[in-house]
Amino acid sequence: MHHYRELQRILDGHPVGAPEAEEFLEILKILFRPDEVAIATALDFKLRPVDEVAAKCGLSAAEVGRRLEAMADRGVVLSKPGPAGRLYALLPVFPGLFEYPFMKYGGDTPEQRRLAELWQAYYMKAWARSLAEADPPWMRVLPAEQALPEITEVLPYEVASEMIKKAGEMALGRCSCRVAVGKCHNPVDVCLVFDGAARFLIERGIARRISLDKALAVLRETEEAGLVHCTSNNTGQLLFLCNCCPCCCHVLRLVVEHDYPRALARSSYLARVGPECTGCGTCAETRCPMKAITLQETAAVNEDRCIGCGLCVTTCPTGAMTLVKRPAHAEPPPSPQVLYALNAARRTGK
Ligand code: SF4
Ligand code: SF4
Question: Does the domain formed by 2-92 have CATH 1.10.10.10?
Answer without folding.
Answer: yes
